[in-house]
Amino acid sequence: MQSRNTSKYISILLLFISVNMVVVAQSQLKKRDLNAITDQINLEKFEEASKNIKSLMISHPDEPILNLQMGLCLLNMDYKTDDAIPFLEKAKESYSLEKRRNQRAIEARYYLAQAYHLNHRFDEALAELIALKDNIPPKQKDLLKEIERETAYNQNAILLKSNPVNFRISNLGQAINSEHDEHSPLISADETILIFTSNRQGTGSLKTYDDQYYEDIHQSIWREGKWLPALNIGQKINTSGNDATCSLSADGQTMIVYRNDGISGDLYYSSLSDEGWTEPVKFPKPINTDYNETHGSFSYNGNTLVFASDRPGGFGGKDLYMVKKLPDGTWGKIMNLGPTINTIEDEDSPFLSHDETTLYFASMGHMSMGGYDIFSTKRLNQTEQKWSEPKNIGYPINTPGDDLFYSPTIDGQRVYYASERPGGLGRSDIWLIEYPETHEKAMAVVGGFIFTEDGLPSYESLVTVTKKDTGEEMGEYRPHPQTGKYIMILPTGVEFTMTVRTFGKTTVEKNFSLKGRQDFSTRGNASYLDPIVVEDIKQAQ
Questions:
Q1: Which long-range contacts (C-beta less than 8 Å, at least 24 apart) are formed by 218-222?
Q2: pLDDT higher than threshold 80 for residue 257
Q3: What InterPro entries is this protein classified in (predicted)?
Q4: pLDDT confidence of residue 440
């Protein structure tokens, strides 16, 4: 997940300290060998550095500087943070804090606290940080600030861990995930189309500095109770650079994508046509700027966009902004979502609920337990853009590492979510979270198909839904031109009347109602009505 500056936060923090590491020759170790390793660490070439350290450890197994450097490397390698602990514990034993200016003693304890934290040993991490803080020279203000932040992360983690969230999580399997990074899942309202980002080999052969392929967008279809093997979505969308998913409209007709030109990242949109996804069109200014716009989310009707940007004038790092579409189709004034949501840290990957009352987003601030955590906030005032205090969605959905790209279904009972978790296929995987039913949800998804007598999609039909008892109109919907499929989002426990009008065809009217979802349903499929065939008026007469 390198293209949007969402790499593991541990690397960024450790780089700040590691570049200040002064290497000197010790007990027969050659200074040039140690300097070469330090250079590799500073360039974040941790795998390469660890191999060189391992070679030196054959003849110097207890050398403190090698244990410290090996711990640092393992701490920054996927699924190796647990292996870092014994090396860092050895380094801690070798470097005393009695001398207040012993930089390596400080580093050993700081890294060890990081290792404990990433391995959910929060109490031990907190103890190391508290003991360390009193031994940091006052002039190291940046390091003291980082220790304070790490202390808060662990305190938050202890509190969140004491009240874990009740949920079930399952890996989406080999049809979706690979040994590479998969993230930013987009799910259609009826959960039959999954679009996501992966850095498996795709459109191009270019690689990033850490030997990973540039990201491409992939798609899978749910058929006969399983996901079909994901396929590259094609060269109209994917380029030789980084291309990533951001948002999918509820009807699956419009997608927001991210592209990075090597200097900055921008947001684009693509529409689904008879020939597939169209060439992405860049959002105009001031949505896109010369800075990084990393992620965006449409409202259900597509008239509101929430996006992340590191443009100047925010509260710090990346902030979240909102913009609404005007009646003439252009976009209005950009609004910063304010200090209730934005912090001095980064905010990213917003997801706006279908009714625009709930916003999910990732933040390194607020009550994060480490790196990016997922938060939710409720809109308090439609006109003044006031939001409730963001709430951490809880442990163990949120982890000590980076957790982003949270895509809930319409009823909020299931979430498609990217995370590096034990039991995955490699690096970041896409998972399905299912919550137990605690109360009847207000909204559900209903779909169906409309055809002509010839069996062709009746794309000219207009579907109107009203409440049967009051006649209140709930919405108007049109079938997809390629499939004849329509999708509606409606409240449960209500009886509806659906009217299908088509020029030159008879009007079709039918009644239906929706039931709530059962506890821990294996999969929350949409409710599908029987297919509708519209007949010519002359034939009906």
A1: 219/193, 219/194, 219/195, 220/175, 220/176, 220/193, 220/194, 220/195, 220/196, 221/192, 221/193, 221/194, 222/191, 222/192, 222/193, 222/194
A2: yes
A3: 6-blade_b-propeller_TolB-like, TPR-like_helical_dom_sf, WD40
A4: 44
Rounded Cα distance, 473 and 145, in Å:
55
Q: 28: Cβ–Cβ under 8 A, 6 or more apart, which residues?
A: 60
Question: 466 forms bridges with which residues in the sheet?
Answer: 473, 497
The sheet that has 473-477: what strands, in order across it?
473-477, 462-467, 495-501, 508-513
Is pLDDT of 360 > 90? Answer: yes
540, pLDDT greater than 60 = no
pLDDT at 13: 41
Instruction: Give the integer Cα–Cα distance in Å for 169 and 215.
Output: 25
Letter for the amino acid at 197?
A: T
Give me the phi and psi of 351, to 5 degrees please: -140, 115
> Mean pLDDT, to the nearest integer, of 369-380?
91
pLDDT above 90: percentage of residues in the chain: 43
Peptide bond into 436 cis (omega under 30): no
Contacts of 321 (CB under 8 A, 6+ apart): 306, 307, 308, 309, 334, 335, 336, 337
Find the mean pLDDT for residues 73-89.
90
Question: Average of pLDDT values for 50-59?
Answer: 91
The two beta strands, 319-324 and 304-309, are antiparallel
Count CB atoms within 10 A of the CB of residue 422. Answer: 5
β-partners of residue 219 are: 195, 231
Q: Is it true that the peptide bond before 286 is cis, omega within 30 degrees of 0?
A: yes
Per-residue pLDDT tens over the stretch 381-421: 766 678 999 999 999 889 898 888 888 887 777 889 888 77
Report the DSSP beta bridge partners of residue 417: 406, 431
On the question of pLDDT at 20 being above 70, the answer is: no
pLDDT for 274 equals 77
241 vs 408: CA distance, rounded Å? 28
What count of other Cβ atoms lies within 10 Å of the Cβ of residue 336?
Answer: 17
Interatomic CA distance for residues 446 and 455, integer angstroms: 21
Helix (H) or strand (E) holding 260: strand 254-260
Indicate the pTM of the whole model.
0.79
Ordered by where they begin, the domains of the chain are 9-161 (1.25.40.10), 168-434 (2.120.10.30), 443-540 (2.60.40.1120)
Taking CA atoms, 505 is separated from 143, 452, 454, 502, 512, in Å, by 73, 9, 13, 5, 22
Residues in the chain: 541
Return the half-sphere exposure (C-beta side, CA atoms, 13 A cut-off) of residue 179: 3
Q: Which residues contact 156 (CB under 8 A, 6 or more apart)?
A: 367, 368, 369, 392
